[in-house]
Design brief:
mainly alpha
Length: 293
């Protein structure tokens, strides 16, 4: 079941990141995050209350710490999605966010079988490949001028920096949520969403950015709400995955979420992928097959 919950989490994270990035291209990232974080908090709070689970003090504490770090990471991540190609920011963030949790899992004594090692290695290689190819210009755009190429390289460098910074935050978030999940799935996630919302509200207030309103357009508003709901659902699926089996395996599979973001960006936004990114997606499929058989 660890693979099932982890892959569901990857699907939800990738979809949430695509929607959040799309909304952030129409409004300020902080305005979007306030709405998405609030929507996610309401959904997971309702689910926790309905579930009848008890709110353990340890789980709530880890959840609050995770939310504070994750909220900071989301601000950086969504800023990157709005400023640069989704197909660069998301994969690099996922790769960096995987290194720390996997290292902790191995140091803690987790020793998966040979097929899982090979499959996990392929998944990590897939993330690198997906992030290695810069997005080509859309069809029909003509030859790029030297100035455009220089601007593109600067934008790519900025996207990589956003990916690294947000990935480090998400790696710590994954660790904290794993510890919080030992005392339940829903309440620690709710605590994390609450702390994340608090961080976002503080930064938004300091920057004097109002929440995204319905008047700004129903599509950006509803997109932000959907991103928050999917992100909270992904958090719950992730916690359930860490409670079902090997933590390192769960993190590696969850880190495949950029593949979903990249595919959605390709299909819906017309971002074209280079051969390395196509190869990365194919290798990811083989890696998933190895760790799930």
């Amino acid at each position: 079941m660890v693979a099932f919950y982890a892959l569901v989490s990857a699907l939800l994270y990738g979809s949430a990141d695509f929607l959040g990035g799309a909304a952030a291209r129409r409004a300020h990232v902080l305005s979007v995050l306030v709405i998405s974080a609030a929507a996610g908090l309401l959904v997971v709070l309702a689910a926790a209350v309905v579930s009848g689970q008890r709110a353990g003090a340890a789980g709530l504490g880890w959840g609050l710490c995770a939310g504070a770090v994750g909220g900071t990471g989301l601000i950086v991540f969504y800023s990157g999605l709005a400023a640069g190609p989704m197909s660069v920011v998301a994969p690099i963030s996922a790769l960096v966010s995987t290194v720390l949790p996997v290292a902790v899992a191995l140091a803690g004594g987790e020793r998966p079988g040979p097929a899982v090692y090979v499959g996990g290695g392929l998944c990590l290689a897939a993330i690198v490949l997906v992030s290695s190819g810069r997005s080509a210009a859309p069809a029909g755009s003509g030859s790029a001028r030297p100035g455009d190429q220089a601007a593109g390289e600067r934008g790519r460098g900025l996207a990589i920096a956003y990916g690294i910074m947000s990935g480090a935050s998400f790696g710590i978030f994954f660790l904290f949520m794993r510890y919080g999940g030992e005392s339940g799935a829903l309440w620690p996630v709710a605590a994390a969403r609450l702390a994340g919302l608090a961080v976002i509200l503080i930064v938004a207030a300091a920057a004097r950015k109002a929440p995204l309103s319905w008047r700004a357009g129903s599509v950006p508003f509803l997109t932000a709400v959907a991103a928050g709901v999917l992100d909270s659902s992904a958090n719950v699926s992730y916690v359930l995955a860490t409670r079902q089996g090997l933590f390192g395996l769960a993190v590696v599979l969850v880190a495949l979420y950029p593949g979903v973001t990249v595919l959605l960006a390709r299909v819906l936004l017309g971002e074209r992928l280079r051969w390395a990114q196509h190869a990365g997606l194919a290798i990811a499929a083989v890696g998933v097959a190895l760790v799930t058989i």
